[in-house]
């Protein structure tokens, strides 16, 4: 379980760094959210979840409509932005 949590923490760190880079580049919060949505779409289509957290996110993504997926993307940005 500890390894799974480390992997998820690494993923959050990666996302946090990308969000930080986008913000330093002057991208608006809305643009960052749109990018997060696009990344979420790509991951849901192309990447098999590697742990429980990723599987839960994928399952939530899969059952959500576009508006709900955009909310998930915004929440993930908010999650890593607070770290």
From TrEMBL:
Q: Which InterPro entries match?
A: DUF3243, Uncharacterised_YmfJ, YmfJ/YflH_sf
A Pfam family assignment? DUF3243
What is the top-level taxon of the source organism?
Answer: Bacteria
Q: Which Gene3D superfamilies match?
A: Protein of unknown function DUF3243
Protein name stated in the entry: Metal-binding transcription factor (Methanogenesis marker protein 9)
Organism, by scientific name, is: Paenibacillus eucommiae
Q: What is the lineage of its organism?
A: Bacteria, Bacillati, Bacillota, Bacilli, Bacillales
